[in-house]
Amino acid sequence: MSIDRFPVGLELDVSYPNFQVSLTLLSATQLRFEIKEGPFARTETVDIQVVPLGNSIFAVSWQEENGSTVTNVQDYDRGLIHSFATLPGGQFLRMMGTIAVSRPADRTFDDRPGRNKALVLEAMTSLFQRHDASAVERLYAPDYVQHNPSIPQGRDALQALVADLSQDVYYEPGLIVAEGDLVAIHGPIRGWADAPQVVVDVFRIEDGKLAEHWDVLQNEVPVAAALRGISMFDAEEGAPRARPGTA
Questions:
Q1: Which of 38, 88, 185, 226 is 20 to 30 A from 134 (CA-CA)?
Q2: Of 103, 133, 161, which residue is a domain's last?
């Protein structure tokens, strides 16, 4: 993880148990904080040192004009800040606050959507192309929640289902989109039902595992040439598209 991924420009409100603070990440070397109410109320711009700890996790430390020293572990994956502060009188504070973003960063800093898309793609191809039931335990959360009422609840039930799948079952991934902890993937599946179907699967990811699932299935309808119809699935639909005016 590089310091280049520090979310410069980000403005956020942090809610601690006893007060709130607004942070503005001015650069990789400065931030501004504002505490509007309470005994710590003030606004100050401080010099910071940033140490990347992992994807979207940074240790940020500074010293304030009154001598207070602060270290924040800013975890943007989980929306939390763990703060450790020593006040001028020697009092030591440990606090955890939740993050609410009021202005996004100047550039993308979170590779979580990309990681989540890769996880979903691996799961769908492992289970419904290679029929690898052992992948369920590796990729799915122990308390996995299934919103398809025709499939039994839980990870163990999913593993048993995959182990019993007909070799005719085959899934082809297409368009895949992700935001935050959610991923949606679109593609056809054959052998699951009497007729080929096109499905949109939506997953929620938690701690690097597939934790929850929704789906919508529709029988695949052939293209009507007389209507100049477009197929329900295009094998190239997930490929990058050229921008208008480019070769």
A1: 185
A2: 103
| Cβ(211)–Cβ(116) below 8 Å | no
Residues in contact with 159: Cβ distance below 8 Å, sequence separation at least 6, in sequence order: 133, 136, 137
C-alpha span between 24 and 22 (Å, rounded) = 7
| Total domains present in the chain | 2
At what angle are helices 155-163 and 112-128 packed, to 10 degrees?
40
Mean pLDDT, the chain, as a whole number? 90
Q: Which SS3 state, helix, strand or coil, does residue 122 take? A: helix
Lowest mean pLDDT among 30-44, 94-108, 153-167: 94-108
Q: Give Cα 242 distance to the centre of its chain.
A: 26
Note whether 138 and 92 are same-domain residues.
Answer: no
Residue 181: which CATH number?
3.10.450.50
Mean predicted confidence (pLDDT) in 183-210: 94
